[in-house]
């Protein structure tokens, strides 16, 4: 392992707090770096990350083409089966015909009009949550505003009753623990339990909606008729997990950045500022792909059966694409092709909704809490792939 690779230490608290110097070293010393602890090739450059996200020689899974044995991989542990059943039937981890079919069907129920119709609800929820924070004189921005907003929005879309929403976030957090690098057996156990409980809950909710359809996404998915029940369950879980993690951490990480830098966005150019906050400190630092056919990158052959780790956080700070100000927060940046929402066939279906949520919550805080300030220095969570704070205590 060379010095640049050694700087990449996703289990180090110091690295998690500021991975960007290590990314700069990786970019300076190559286009592909073998990282033995996770048996992955690290890909740090924007041009390569963007291209590989679109390259069909790579995939989120390989099981549509190969058995585990043919691909040189161990099958998942039998004890983890409930998690993999849930995860493997979701849009994010499907490839080829199954992915195209489910994305087409889900898109019918997740249209731009559906998302736009949610905007008044999003603004109402954001106003209420920020109003409560202001009335209390401050508090934990994460627990009181950033988390409740997207969870409530997704729950509203799915038609989850108010009194049943409290379990969604804990289930999601436990399942997302499996997306970290080399998750522990305890993390796997929690994910399995959450997968079983969440699936059972959604199975019962789907049965209710079959009997009594409503004006919600689950009822719309049932009406599509071409989705299996497992595909519906996995889709709903993915919408919750993917639909709030980015919003939660962009809200909290973004406000920490604004407070640390002592700057505020122009309310008239909020959408531009939100894109910059998504780029500057992306909530999803890494996205993984399997290599289905040999590829070559910078003179390095990456063989079939390998896994690449596309470093979104590095790509979004690459001076080759963002110029000499790549490491600078520029809330007026307009040329901003960040990869925070991915690219290609797996581009985030919920990106338009996330943008609506972020603009709503940032707009409310700018308007109603102009004196917002840190009440305590925050602590980063230990996770690296989905990177965010334990809490963000603020005063208004």
List the topology elements.
Layout: H1 3-7, H2 13-17, H3 20-29, E1 33-35, E2 40-43, H4 46-54, E3 58-59, H5 81-88, H6 96-109, H7 112-135, E4 138-140, H8 141-146, H9 148-158, H10 168-176, H11 185-211, H12 217-224, H13 229-261, H14 270-280, E5 286-291, E6 295-297, E7 300-302, E8 307-311, H15 312-315, H16 319-322, H17 351-368, E9 373-374, E10 393-395
Helix pairs in contact: 5-11, 5-13, 6-12, 7-9, 7-17, 9-13, 10-11, 11-13, 13-17, 14-17
What does the model show?
The chain is of the alpha+beta class. It has a single domain (3-395), classed as Cytochrome P450 (Cytochrome p450). 52% of the residues lie in helices and 9% in strands. The chain has 17 helices and 10 strands. The strands form 3 sheets. The chain has a 5-stranded mixed sheet, sandwiched between helices. The longest helix is centred in the middle third of the chain and has 33 residues, at 229-261.
Give a concise summary.
The chain has 396 residues and is of the alpha+beta class. It has helices at residues 3-7, 13-17, 20-29, 46-54, 81-88, 96-109, 112-135, 141-146, 148-158, 168-176, 185-211, 217-224, 229-261, 270-280, 312-315, 319-322, 351-368, and strands spanning 33-35, 40-43, 58-59, 138-140, 286-291, 295-297, 300-302, 307-311, 373-374, 393-395.
